[in-house]
Amino acid sequence: MVKPAVAAVALASFAWAIGVWAAPISVRDSFRIGSAGSSYCSAQPVATDPALVGMFDAGYAITCRDAALPVGKLYLLRSEGASARLAGLRTRTATCKPAGRGAIEQLGEVSISNCTLNDVPVTYRTYEFRRGNTLYIAEGLAGYDSALRLGLRSLVADAAVDGEVSIAMTGAGDPAAFARVQAGTLDPTRALSEAYRRNNVGSYADAAEFFAAVGSAETAPISRAEALINEALQKSNLGRFQEADALFARADEQVFGDPIDGRRLRNYRAMHLLNQSQPDAALVELAKPMPAFAARSAEQDETRPSIDSVTSQRLNSEAGVGQQLGGASDDLTPEEKGEILDGQALQLRGTSLRLQGNFGGARDALGEADTKLAAVRGGRVASIAWMRSQIVGDLGALAEQTGNIAEADRQFRQAVIILETNYPGSAALLNARARFAGHLARSGNVTEAETVFREIVKSHGDASTLPPSFARVLRPYVDILLKDGATPAEGAEIFAATQLMMRPGLAQTQAILARELNGGTGEASRLFRQAVSLTRQVERTRISLTRMEALATPTATEAARTAALRVDLDTARKAALATQSSLADYPRYRAVTSDIITLDELQKALRPGEAYYRMTVVDEGIYAFLATPTSAGVVKLPVTAGELEAQVKTLRESIVTVERGQQVTYAYDIPMAHKLYGDLFAPFAAEIARTKHLIFEPDGAMLRMPANALITDRSSVDRYAARVAANPDSDFDFTGLAWLGRDRDVSTAVSPRSFVSLRNAPPSAGDKAYLGLGHNSVPAGRAAGPQDAIDVNCMLPLASWQRPISARELKIAGDILAREGSRGVDVVTGDAFTDTAIEARDDLKDYRIIHFATHGVVTAPRPQCPTQPALLTSFGPKGSDGLLTFREIFDLDLDADVVILSACDTAGTATAVATQSAGLATGGDVALDGLVRAFVGAGGRLVVASHWPVPDDFSATERLVAGLFAASPGTPTVTAMRLSQAKLMDDADTSHPFYWAAFAIVGDGEAPLVRSKAR
User: Fold this and answer.
1) What b/e string do you get for 703-728 counting C-beta neighbours within 10 Å, with b at 16 or more?
2) SS3 label, residue 774
């Protein structure tokens, strides 16, 4: 990714612009409800509403985070009979009690009525307040009462009033889903304006939803090409480059020589290339000839016809090469739009040249861009203000790179001021401030840099709303604090700052599970789980509907399916909203949980002998943080991300690799395993030596490598080398090596918040000990694959089912538990082990341990096929495909202390297709986001999963599992695993990590596999 780029103009040019949040709400397309910086609800003008009959009437839809539909309405009515008209309209959907009187802060006495919705038993509330000849109304679900009250106060004040919004939130909703609901309340023209505005402020995922809403409207105010180009850029901004490439290719087919769309495509492709740190390719793209504008007549020039599409662009997102040409006039001529786009191209050219080191050429291009933009309406177009603010930053970067620190300081400050004036509180402003702070740090103004960075971190506790690039702009802050060795206070700041950097989607799923479990087992917990399930149902139904609606020429069957999906989506949204509103009756779910926890909170959760080691990879830099109950430290590691990737690749390939279709294991690279240990842990050697339980939160390449297979002691490496030198045939004998996992337990975590939350969760309430599942029956004459597979060539070959995994390890585990007197021990194999049978069971939540021993599906049959992580099962009756897929697993109802996945590569990733099929809009592209995430989502607190194919040789896996279950009741799972692994380490035949190190214990490994008799 490229670093942010910006450039210089006089601020007076933008003095005309009024900040959008400072304007009266009556002239805005939306306004927040609740205090700035912590608002979870907003209001958007409604396009049509039968309550609006006069030209001075106005209505708004209230939307809130995690709500699948608008939760209420606001009205400002000056027409006669408004109250009676609204009451009549309300009878269609609700039954209301007679109105009473009450009071609302700052307003005084209001009329209040409590109603019940006709289709679901949920309370609906109305407030009416009259001032002069104007009637103000707020009405909606009672679970959102605080939003109704604040919305009414804001409407009366014609300004967003600060106050607390207390609503139920599960955390399961994709932040972009909030934008999706908002976009659905606006007419297409307003939605388009809002799409570009959100682009301006750096809310790229939100903008994508608004563009999608506009593009799918029957009367879309933009061309298909413009919609595709914008969608492509959003994918690029979010780091999904392959999807962006495909969308740009589709857009190219739709441009048809249009001079505006052609320029937009050129510029956005250049931004896409800059997002990927390819300035050379961006310059080639920018040099392409563009279609000329058709000659215009004098009559056309005089009429200056309005243009439907908004003149707006967005400059490079991720890298901050620019902030979007924002909200614009609708009366710009095509030629003026072309001038703005060509000015943007020059700015992008200047950015690319600067990144190449051609500072003179960059300055010339930026100056030319500034001149061209200033010539359009005297520079008084909002989109030009955005462009020129980026030029300010670009010139600031140039000044710094050429040693003119004073000029750079002036320019960077000016870029921040422009954004503060126009878009306060935006993600773009956060990026600009962080970029400015980075400049301050590099130029020696460390004190001010720290102050700015500290304010950024404290102002934002929700990492889900930040772009992936935010980690990059925070990196200088961490470097400042580490420069002379971080003090305890600075270490705590680094710990907080790095939690704003993106983690696997598993972290979100674990946190949601912990909230459910900590809510108890009563009605509140049931509602919470139902709300989470309905949220996913809404998302996957929406995705299916989107795919069907995209069909160019649907068949009759497809058209019927599309109609049915629309009904299903409406039903699911209403059910989700009703459940969410009911959940607000329970205060524990009205508390909003930040992604960030303090260092003190983490240390209080740690036990004596424990250490939490956290990695954070930013570009090529790697930072490591280690906390114990009484100490903490942070360092920048001496290894780069690229070097780490190469080291892990070397180790993984010596464990198992595929050559000519066959799995091959080589002698483990012992020197590399010791070097990697030193690179990661040497700065904390003393603390690690005292640690009995290491909670390891990996990042980057280490997400694919178990830490327990690293080697701590150089002398053991030397002894191994001497032994092999004396007897070359002993190179596979790794006994006697000082493995990190020999003397200490190792758990895998994915975020401090999710680890602490799960540690505090109660254990399973199941009254049965164990359910073992595996050993599929061999099918005959049948191909298989996911039921929703479109391409028959993506079906798995029948051979996949021909060599079932032995059920011996399941029977061993079951026998051990039965001998110890555990109640409820069941092993299901053969014809009874089918995907449909597992899905149909209503007793899965009764088992504390669920153990699968079968084949895992982690790769697609062919490169063009989407990967759907799954476990192989036997084939059942109609409806069975012999696979328990990611989506199907997520839908299971478990209450398990431990889930054991004794199958190949179960700690791997999930594709976007698989993730979306389960109704998840985030995560999926990193290790642990596949089957592990699915089983956590189903209700598994701790998941034991494999990093590579589990071996059959020497009965290694059976022995490992037997040892795991043979540990004394009450033994922590992670300790039982270590003791079992040690036996294989000490056997020359199974001392290679291939045999004993595959399994990662994901979650709080201190939880016992087998409970003590006292429990």
Assistant:
1) bbbbbbbbbbeeebbeebeebbeeee
2) strand
H-assigned helices in 737-878: 752-759, 808-819, 835-840
What is the C-alpha to C-alpha distance for residues 858 and 881, in angstroms, rounded to an integer? Answer: 16
CA distances from 558 to 562, 572, 665 (A): 6, 21, 49
Q: Which two tokens stand for residue 275?
A: 């997002």
418 touches 11 (CB < 8 A)? yes
Nearest to 925 by CA among 703, 736, 709: 703
Highest mean pLDDT among 222-236, 400-414, 417-431, 840-854: 840-854
Distance between CA atoms of residues 692 and 551, nearest Å: 57
Does the predicted model carry a pTM greater than 0.90? no
- Residue 201 dihedral angles phi and psi, to the nearest 5°: -90, 5
Tokens of 203: 């809310």
- CA dist., res. 642 & res. 639, Å (int): 8
Place of tokens 């202390």: 897
Q: Hunting for tokens 């698989």 — which residue is that?
A: 914
Q: How far apart are the first and last CA of the chain?
A: 53
- Output the CA angle 495-500-503, nearest 5 degrees: 100
Count of CA atoms in the C-beta half-sphere (13 A) of 105? 10
> Is residue 838 within 8 Å of 774, Cβ to Cβ?
no
* Interaxial angle between packed helices 488-498 and 446-459, expressed in degrees from 0 to 180 and rounded to the nearest 10: 50
For 379-413, write each residue's pLDDT tens digit.
Answer: 777 667 667 777 888 888 899 999 999 999 999 99
Task: Give me the residues paired with residue 945 across strands.
Answer: 1000
Count of helix runs (H) and strand runs (E) in the chain: 35, 25
Residue from 69, 57, 70, 93 nearest 148 by CA:
70
Distances, alpha carbon 63 to alpha carbons 67, 189, 863, in Å: 7, 19, 41
Given a contact cutoff of 8 angstroms between Cβ atoms, the answer to whether 674 and 682 are in contact is no
